[in-house]
Fold this protein.
Amino acid sequence: VLPMAAEAIVKGDARVPAISAASILAKVSRDLFCDEMHRSHPQYGFATHKGYGTAEHLEALRAHGPSPWHRRSFAPVRALVAQP
């Protein structure tokens, strides 16, 4: 529950310019962050998969375990962290 009025806008990025702009800024920011993570942890391939759960990304997780940057709420990471 938000402490202010809010409206969900279906397909808002196609209908509201501010939502479109925010979406672009978020994706560019994420891509830059993934490039930065790739420089410090190249074994995970962040520069190519940009954090999406591709087959290559999942294989890197299995081979190297999660990095400090991996979300523990992501099911494959959570499963690896739960292993003894």
